[in-house]
Amino acid sequence: MRATDLPHRLVAPVALACVTLACTPGGIALDGDDGAGESDTAADEIGDSEGSGSSEADSSSESGTDEAESGETETETGETGETGTETDTDWGDEWDDEDDFDTGTLPEPPEPTLNFLPTKRFAFWWDDTFAAEDYQLFQLLPGAAEAQPLGEPSTATNPTLLHQPLFRRLGASYHVRACNLDGCTDSDPMVVDAAIDGAIGHVKASNAQGGDWFGWDVALSLDGQTMAVSARREDGGVGGVGGDPNDESIGKAGAVYIFVRDAQGEWSEQAYIKSPVPKPETYFGEHIALSGDGNTLAVASPWEKSDAVGIGGDPDDHSAQQSGAAFVYVRGGPNLDQWSFQEYVKASNAEAYDRFGMSVALSGDGDLLAVGATGEDSLSTGFDGPMDNGWDVSSIGAVYLFERGLDDTWVEAHYVKASNAQGGDNFGEDLSISADGDTFAVSARYEDSGSGGVNGDQDDNSVGGSGAVYVFHRPDGPGSAWAQEAYVKAPHPTHGARFGNQIRLSADGDTLAVSSPEENSGATGIDGDPLDTSADDSGAVFLFRRDPMNQWSQQAYVKASNTGEEDFFGAGLGLSADGNVLAVGAHEEDSAGVGIDSAAAQDTDELDSSGAAYVFAFEDGAWSQVAYLKAPNTDDLDDFGSCVALSGDGETLAVGAYREDDTSKGVNNPPEEGLAFESGAVFLY
């Protein structure tokens, strides 16, 4: 304990910190603005402070005042999140400044406890102590010089930190300061250790069944409050929104589930979404995308079979195998909780085996939709060229841009081809659109050029399957002309590296992350030796930045801290809005580590394809790995990390494990090992 004689500022209990303040029935929840020491405090919940977690009290993990140190935090670097508190305190009572205690009596130090609750909540509690007039919670993040206050002093004795970025909290410490007019006394610190795993969110479908592959793809809104999850092999036979989830009459039709986070940090399923006309083995949900506000959802089904063309055709047709389709849904209603089908989208030149919908992306406002068709076979190049299909070569690939007007009608605006279109390149394998809708990137993971770096020789076809990414830009915004801005390759292309398997753009379009999960270097960490070919299919991620002159260059070469053969680092990829937080999944990584504090076990290789996720941050002018993550119920063949998604602020991370096996249903229900083979799950950190 430590007594201080710092000047005591008596604050009436109602005068709480007001950084982006939102009132709730139980008190006040404040959203931190990433300023050091600014968090939410209220009477029972301290909202968003780069960490979170809350569920049922009887499922929580407790860490007392003598817990061992571990974890990461972000106070000193400006990463203090939301806080909020609820309490039974009568906020209307006034303190008697003069007569509460005798002069010269310091408060007894509090003896707080810390419980880790799903999802992403830290719950504190302590008894009132002798001579204390008010209390203040402090947070010390790893690497920070000093602890920062979370909110203003109050009489609350049970604050809860909401929406905590668990991957940055291991090793953080917290203490409570009790004060009166004579001074303050601090509690012993509580250090975040392995018990933090109790705050990991565990999300399953409400109708989870073996073989559904829930968690095949995942998307988060920018604010991290809406999450879409696909189950590409789900068997429901009732079309549309909110149908019977227990109807299993159409095998592998696919489904998408919407989850939302409420003001108390609790997640729940909001919608169960199917194709309007479910068909067997069409894999609705192969890929999904959300608008920035989470109110527009695009769902791809590249195996869809209708021979319709263009917008609003007849989906009830089965004559064009793997022609593919995309479906648009919107959220509305008085409480913004009602989902409805808006549009059925096909290519204007749709043909069998075009696989329209192999990728899908939305702009921040949801009004620009991009859809990739990797099997399309026109040899035109650039924008809006001839759509004359029927060449002897296949899988050249194309991308289609659709725009939504003020009347909510959709039109096909542009037809986009690679500048060096060739058979087998699979242009359109993945897509990403900047939030402002003025930059988009397209990958062709089987492109063959051997020219490395940015804007090299596109006609060099010496390295088969090396992969490429194309960046397109309209510098004058909507209504102006699009043009190809960059042709991007790995610095040292290698055969079969699949550069461009996953791509992500930052909100402003100035940062591009590109994964290459079949890259072979045995390097580890940042900017190692890419010419070391000692670890086949270990995988890598490449980061590129655009300067004010619209010139692109490579910024970093990223490998896992435990690079291993056939880990496929880069199978999943996520990027924060500012481009400074990167999440990478390696779904066939084999360690036996568990949860957040698992670095010591990262080289064990005991559980085949259990999978892992890695978080990197760009701080002080350099990239570094800040977290190595495993599932809290790690098991072999779960493929944890097959997909990942980050919220815009980089503080909520969703990780899919589509082959996870437990039988629980819904959110944060106890898992039961191995009884629903490959039902799938998503974990929230």
Automatic annotation (TrEMBL):
Keywords: Kinase, Signal, Transferase. PROSITE patterns: PROKAR_LIPOPROTEIN. Pfam families: FG-GAP_2. Residues 513-523 have a biased composition (Polar residues). It comes from Plesiocystis pacifica SIR-1. Gene3D superfamilies: Integrin alpha, N-terminal. GO terms for molecular function: kinase activity. Residues 49-63 have a biased composition (Low complexity). PANTHER family: GAMMA TUBULIN COMPLEX COMPONENT C-TERMINAL DOMAIN-CONTAINING PROTEIN, UNNAMED PRODUCT. It comes from the Bacteria. Signal peptide: none annotated. Residues 31-114, 512-532 are annotated as: Disordered. This is PAS/PAC sensor signal transduction histidine kinase. InterPro entries: FG-GAP (IPR013517), Gal_Oxase/kelch_b-propeller (IPR011043), Integrin_alpha_N (IPR028994). Residues 31-48, 64-102 have a biased composition (Acidic residues).
